[in-house]
Design goal:
This protein is an alpha+beta fold. It has 3 domains: 3-70; 82-306, 3-Layer(aba) Sandwich (Extracellular Endonuclease, Chain A); 311-371. It has 12 helices and 13 strands. It has a 7-stranded mixed sheet with strand order 1-2-3-6-11-12-13, with helices on both faces. A two-stranded antiparallel ribbon has the order 4-5. A two-stranded antiparallel ribbon has the order 7-8. The longest helix has 46 residues, at 14-59.
């Protein structure tokens, strides 16, 4: 047998093969236990390092490092990041299902536009998680109206901004008379300020204020409505800052208004409060970058006078005349003036005559087309 053949037969020898197999098993076993030991040693090192880091952070007073360790899995998400829309910004309160505050900047030009609230519908904000959102059904038969914080009247510039103002993230449960009356007049006052000031900043929102009870103690109590438990505010607040042509602040006023009917006998100045009073209620600084020492009191400068009853009723008759789409409806609205013993001003007279011609032509054209 040749040397090459003898060498090949050596590897086929059962004794060699058995030894080779045992050696492989031994080597693999040794490698496995080595791997396990290395992992164990690495794990122990990590445990020791982590324990040492906690100890150092705690003993050295490194609160940031300690805090990061405590919040290893993140801090609870309150949903209170600022949300930006076409014409306003807000912070949403996920627990109460209402905005915490809504900020606007209104100007004379931005108040003009073709947007129509008839094309907008109240609906949940698509940017708010469904589990934290209010629904229209929450307001249904609740006895509370859906009160805009950034009003539709401030969002006429385009239909997108108008539609966004109808998101329920911009809405609170509001007393119907308050919403349609005193608060509405306050919103109109803010818009009127743009006739004199180039820019008007407005911050609005709900408040939940304590009230004294018979036991002499004060409690914060508020109703919740609907399946989602939308919180009904006890009060509403509004902060107004007016600016000059250079964008510099000129004057400011802060108001806290009860969420209840307020008749025409009450003046806006009755509800003016120091900014510090509002900050004490909400527990945070309001417009912290404004130097309050350089701005005047808006109510001392402008008087903060809202429309009186006659002006208010004439205003809404004007809106009804403008939206009348038939001659019958137009005459019915005009008849309200006599019913309420109101004298129309020249603007209303011109509006009525213009609509009379416009609707007369429309109905005449419709009649002619019907004959054909």
């Amino acid at each position: 047998m040749s040397a090459k053949a003898r060498f090949a037969s050596y590897f086929r020898n059962p004794i060699f093969l058995r030894g080779f197999g045992y050696g492989g098993i031994f080597t693999a076993t040794l490698s496995f236990y080595g791997f396990v030991f290395d992992n164990w040693r690495s794990q122990k090192k990590k445990e020791k390092d982590a324990e040492e880091q906690l100890k150092i952070a705690f003993e050295d007073g490194d609160k940031v490092t300690r805090g990061q360790s405590i919040l290893k899995y993140g801090s609870p998400e309150m949903g209170n990041g600022v949300r930006y829309y076409s014409n306003f910004a807000l912070v949403y309160d996920q627990q109460k299902r209402t905005p915490a505050w809504v900020a606007e900047q209104i100007t004379a030009n931005l108040l003009k536009g073709t947007a129509n609230r008839k094309h907008s519908k109240f609906k949940p904000d698509p940017g708010v998680p469904e589990m934290f959102s209010a629904e229209n059904s929450d307001y249904w038969k609740s006895g509370w109206s859906r009160g805009h914080m950034a009003p539709a009247g401030d969002n006429k510039y385009n239909q997108e901004s108008m539609n966004e103002s109808f998101y329920l993230s911009n809405v609170v449960p509001q007393n119907l008379d308050n919403n349609a009356g005193f608060w509405n007049r306050l919103e109109m006052y803010c818009r009127d300020l743009t006739k004199k000031y180039p820019s008007v900043h407005v911050l609005s929102g709900p408040l939940f204020m304590p009230k004294g009870e018979e036991d002499g103690k004060r409690y914060v109590k508020y109703q919740v409505i609907g399946q989602n438990g939308v919180a009904v505010p006890t009060h509403l607040f509004k902060v107004i800052v007016v600016e000059d042509k250079l964008g510099e602040p000129v004057a400011m006023a802060t108001f806290i208004v009860p969420n209840e009917p307020i008749n025409f006998d009450h003046k806006l100045t009755e509800y003016q409060v120091p900014m510090e009073t509002l900050e004490g209620v909400v527990g945070m600084k309001i417009i912290p970058k404004l130097d309050r020492q350089i701005v005047g009191d808006l109510c001392e400068i402008e008087g903060c006078k809202l429309m009186d009853r006659t002006e208010f009723e004439l205003y809404f008759i004007g809106r009804k005349l403008g939206s009348a789409n038939t001659l019958h409806r137009l005459d019915k609205v005009w008849g309200e003036l006599e019913e309420k013993k109101l004298q129309p001003d020249q603007y209303l007279k011109d509006l009525y005559n213009r609509k009379l011609v416009e609707l007369g032509k429309t109905e005449e054209k419709t009649t002619q087309e019907g004959v054909r």
